[in-house]
Amino acid sequence: MKRAEVYIHIPFCVKKCDYCDFLSFSMNEEARKEYLGMLLSEIRTCAWATEGIFVPTIFIGGGTPSLLSGVEIAEILEAVRDTFEVAEDAEITIEANPGTVTYEKLLAYRQAGINRISFGLQSAQEKELQLLGRIHTYEEFLKSYRMAREAGFTNINVDLMNGLPGQSLESYQDTLLKVCALAPEHISAYSLMIEEETPFYERYAEDEKKRAKGEKPQMLPSEEEERAMDAMTQRILEEAGYERYEISNYAKPGYACKHNLGYWTRENYIGFGLGAASLFDNVRYTNKDSLWLYMHGENRKTAEVIDEQGQMEEFMFLGLRKTKGVSKKCFKNTFQCSMEEVYGEVLKALEEKALICQEQDWVRLTPRGRDVSNVVLAEFLIS
Fold first, then answer.
1. Measured distance CA(361)–CA(13) in Å, rounded
2. 118-158 residue pLDDT tens
3. Please, are residues 260 and 61 in contact by the beta-carbon 8 Å criterion?
């Protein structure tokens, strides 16, 4: 029986954040119900429905999935269980925006089978939350977090961001310490990316260009400050008992996100919903991102066969995101050739620059390599 993770995309939002370029938008009640109906139909009639797929993890992302009721979440998970063989101990995650959950809703999520919740806090500073365009306050986050504990959640992630407009080392440290005091099982700490076609791009594009050139930006933290924030993140979280297992992710022992680890190790996954992607037996399928097409049942997937070169590239640049790195033995077993045969010159050059290290079977990024990870990982794209 083949294994595949399941991802479900819920594109609804109360308000799109100013930095966000994800496929999300506000939707009225009637359209929301219609979307959910099409989603349930897509799950129950998917091409893999008759193949006996074993599902170890489910991730409900968005958008803001926590806008859905407990009944709606239960319907979605029931459709997945009716279609696939879901592991009894499956990790089932829902993303939640602080202020969009109630104690009753959280209880209903638990009863439906959700056992991991991810809160998008981003910052504990009110001014920074306002600049991001977030709809919640820090106090609303605290209330939502405490309700989740009371409802029985024992696996909680908190998302944080650094490199924000007006953010200082002191304000970021305060955010880290406040979150650590709550002792969530998992913390994701990302750097802000200024994406095109967002309000932030128009507001801070010039700052981003200056920072990229090594010049001092006006509103955004400098490159040196960002590196100091990253070092601070690792120091404070490790002191609090968290292990850095991926560039942007930290977990207490036993609480690394199984679903995301599946992405970084190129496990099969099946995506449902508007714009969702799937990877199955080295073919990538992508749902159209047209809401009109999706609502009218014309959601034709595009398919791309990933050749061996593409598979090797993904093996390297996804796997090297993990602190553990990539295994030479696994590479050889997968591709019937050694890593050195394909990437020997790249590995040697990066090691000489102290951007990677090779220890027995493993190749991993050094701390210096993590600082410029995008540049390092791009070296593994075969021209």
1. 45
2. 999 999 999 999 988 888 899 999 999 999 999 999 999 99
3. no
Share of the chain above pLDDT 70, in %: 95
Q: Does the domain at residues 5-264 carry the CATH identifier 3.40.980.10?
A: no
For residue 89, give both structure tokens: 């101990």
The pLDDT of 63-72, averaged and rounded, is 94
139: buried, middle or exposed (CB in 10 Å: 19+, 13-18, 0-12)?
exposed
**pLDDT tens-digit series, residues 162-219:** 999 889 999 999 999 999 999 999 999 999 887 777 777 777 777 777 767 777 676 7
Give strand pairing partners of 250: 187, 244
> So what's the pLDDT on residue 144?
97
* Chain Cα centroid distance, residue 14: 20
Terminal CA-to-CA distance of the chain, rounded, Å?
Answer: 36
- Between CA 313 and CA 307 the distance in angstroms is 10
Side chain identity, residue 180: C
Peptide bond into 63 cis (omega under 30): yes
For residue 253, what are the contacts with CB-CB under 8 A and spacing of at least 6? 243
What tens digit of pLDDT does each residue of 292-322 get? Answer: 888 887 767 889 999 999 999 999 999 999 9
**Domain coordinates in residue numbering, the chain:** 5-264, 308-383
Q: Which of 99, 164, 180 is nearest to 125 (CA)?
A: 164
Report yes or no: 171 and 125 within 8 Å, Cβ to Cβ: yes
CA angle 253, 259, 265 (to 5 degrees): 95
Q: What's the confidence (pLDDT) of residue 205?
A: 72
**Separation CA 373–CA 378 (nearest Å):** 8
Q: Say what the pTM is.
A: 0.93
Burial tier of 98 (Cβ tally within 10 Å: 0-12, 13-18, 19+): buried
CATH 1.10.10.920 for the 308-383 domain, yes or no: yes
With a CB cutoff of 8 Å and minimum separation 6, the contacts of 12 are 24, 25, 26, 27, 32, 35, 62, 63, 64, 65, 67, 68
Which pairing describes strands 186-191 and 249-251: parallel, antiparallel, or unpaired? antiparallel
Residue with token string 């993904």: 314
Q: Over 90: is that where the pLDDT of 106 sits?
A: yes
Mean pLDDT of the chain: 92
